[in-house]
Design a protein that fits this description.
Aminotransferase-like, 9 helices, single chain, globular, alpha+beta, binds pyridoxal-5'-phosphate, 8-stranded mixed sheet, D-amino Acid Aminotransferase, Chain A, domain 2
Length: 290
């Protein structure tokens, strides 16, 4: 029997605070003139809920607030959103892994009132990709590495609802026999996946590209770095080229839903994976919440 998803709707007050009320997740709730639906004008976060506990929630809420600021949306009432995530996760039938999706849109056109909700539901089953690994293509993202300063209106680095490009890149990968994508800037910087962060291991050094390149600061990556430091390894936020990915000892794509997926091929060329390290990393991500 599939379990029912849980929905809490945000009710913003004039003083900037927000309350959340439960609603039917299987019934229509959004107006057709909501700018989140018509323009993708809004921000979101997907938070892993493992064993009932939201993972990296403070980091997610931080990023949610930063994304909202980049879009000139009202600052989310962070304490109220945190409370709603906990309440919605607790209201869902227990599952080993769930996802909590937090959405804040510019609201119904002309209203000036944002629309928000927290939706908790079972995510996809990632067992296969976590264990067998993934085939990845490096694809052009068609912006330069200094996009954030050159063209801030492109909103790179904000987690907006405009993900049509991201899903198109994933469809392109699948149509070409791969599972996933690593985006590359016009000047050759490795950026991020359409919904993941790149992690490369060079001996005992773990490297991820910097958010200054117009990419998200990954919450899963931050938790993976904490794990790596805990085992005595070095962690570094540094620029990488595609050639660096080719010489890394191992590569992963990290994200809240799938957690860690080892990259077993890049552009059709097999890559070494490390099953023991993947098991250790995944165990950490599944058992340590922050
Ligand atoms: N980069 C992009 C574009 C994403 O959409 C995501 C997650 O959905 C990530 C990186 C990984 O972030 P996190 O680990 O916080 O889920």
């Amino acid at each position: 029997m599939p379990s029912s998803p849980v929905l809490f709707l945000a009710v913003p007050a004039a003083d900037g605070t927000t309350t959340f009320t439960p609603a039917d997740a299987l019934a229509p709730q959004l107006r057709v003139d909501d700018l989140g639906a018509t323009r993708g004008d809004g921000v979101f976060e997907s938070v892993a809920v493992v064993g009932g506990t939201p993972q990296g929630l403070a980091h997610h809420l931080d990023r949610f607030a930063r994304s909202a600021a980049l879009l000139d949306l009202p600052a989310p009432d962070t304490a109220a959103w945190a409370d709603a995530v906990h309440r919605a996760a607790a209201a869902h039938e227990p599952r080993p892994e769930l996802l909590a999706k937090l959405v804040l849109t510019r609201g119904v056109e002309g209203s000036g009132v944002p629309t928000g909700w927290v939706h908790v539901f079972p995510g996809a089953d990632h067992t296969e990709q976590r264990t067998a690994g993934i085939d990845v293509l490096a694809l052009e993202r068609a912006y330069p590495s200094d996009v954030v300063v050159r063209a801030p209106w492109l909103l790179q680095g904000a987690k907006t609802l405009s993900y049509a490009l991201n899903t198109a890149a994933l469809r392109y990968a699948r149509a070409h026999g791969a599972h996933d994508v690593v985006f590359v800037s016009t000047d050759g910087d490795v950026l991020e996946g359409p919904n993941s962060t790149v992690l490369a291991r060079f001996a005992d050094r773990w490297v991820t590209p910097p958010p200054e390149l117009g990419i998200l600061d990954g919450t899963t990556q931050a938790r993976a770095f904490a794990w790596a430091r805990g085992r005595g390894d070095r962690t570094e936020v540094a620029r990488l080229g595609v050639d660096d990915l080719k010489t890394a000892d191992a590569l992963w794509l990290l994200s809240s839903g799938r957690l860690s997926a080892p990259v077993r091929s890049l552009d059709g060329v097999p890559r070494p994976t490390d099953a023991a390290l993947q098991a250790e990393l995944l165990h950490h991500l599944l058992t340590v919440a922050d």
